[in-house]
Amino acid sequence: MPERVLICGAGVAGSIVAFYLGKADFQVTVVERSKAEQKAGQGIEIEEPALSVVRHMGVLDTLESVKTGEEGAEFVDQRSRSYGIFKAGGISPTGELELMRGDLTEVLYKAADAHLNVTYLFETTIQSLRQTQDKVIVDLAHRPTRSVKTEEFDLVVGADGVKSRTRQLAMGSPEELNCFKAVGAYTAYFSIPKQDQDWPYSRLCHFPGRKVVWMRPVSKASDVTSVYLIHVGKNVPALSRANAVGDRMKQKEALAELYSGLGWEVPRVIEEMLKAENFYSDELMQVKLQKWSQDRVVLVGDAAWAPTPFTGEGNQLAIMGAHVLAQEISRYRSSAAFDAYEKRLRAYVEDAQNIPLGGYAPYIFVPQTSLGVWVFRTLIYLGSWIVRFIAWRGMPDGSDQQHKEFDLQIEKDETKKAR
């Protein structure tokens, strides 16, 4: 009988693990608390070495067809005056393969679900988990019907994000594990109705008080624009309280107060935010664990090592980590795979979790004072002209050396199959 694996979370990491384990003849069940048709999340990019994984999966052409088409990032001031444009690729905030997270997860879900031995259960959560010597007994709750069924699995993979329920059931609460490391910043993202100026560049505006508003196009045909609010600061009591209890309206009200009185398109953003349905807000936390597995349960992606957006590595690590985990499970076909997975990946992950400039990048790139904002804008202005000059001269900009190397052992697996 094929080994049975439960994957908690149908996001990027969960569906990649499901795809490869389905391909390796495991009997895979994926549970996801959201609805099947629900798309959520921010814009993300895929670059090497994670790009090699989606290429190997055979979904790269599909992903190319659903990328946002964002042509680059434009930095503007409170009067909408541009002071720097960075075309997609290289050092730009816009990657060459820029996608909405919902589109990426849909493509990965469909690729995994194409395997007959992979089953997705949406609007389903893991309620309890009990481990024995040779299996994991799990109670799965179906939210619409409020029914609960008990199933047995050989292995369980927690790919359910920063606040992982799987991690808590298998290892303990975040307080017991002391695994949350606040980075001193808050973020929110949501969609608002699109206007002509929202295409084709994303636009960033910095304000004193360490505040940023970033507006990003979803696609040329879309009727909405994505908005990201970023605030670097450790003392926002109203927002902290609202985040703690998950009260979306209180979160919106706290952000509206925090961003009140600012120029540019902020009044429009705040007005539409208060009506937005796909709203998400939280304090940014890194996850740092002494071990990524407990007996027959293993974690991957943000559940194991959330790096925060300030590293720019979250999506990359989710893709790479899922591939490595599935690779090792396919090789060992037991929980012995978990140590091999962690041995291969931990050093790379810990390096990727380092926030640039000794952890001070958020404070440098999101200034506190009006003078700091002016200095930042001046540097962006000069930097944009340097990039243009380099492009005009046809000189290398160093972007091909910016990716950290990691051996995904894809060729090794292909060699084994050929034999």
Automatic annotation (TrEMBL):
Residues 400-419 have a biased composition (Basic and acidic residues). Keywords: FAD, Flavoprotein, Oxidoreductase. Residues 5-350 form the FAD-binding domain. PANTHER family: MONOOXYGENASE (PTHR46865:SF2), OXIDOREDUCTASE-RELATED (PTHR46865). Residues 399-419 are annotated as: Disordered. The keyword Signal does not apply. This is FAD-binding domain-containing protein. GO terms for molecular function: FAD binding; oxidoreductase activity. It holds the Pfam family FAD_binding_3.
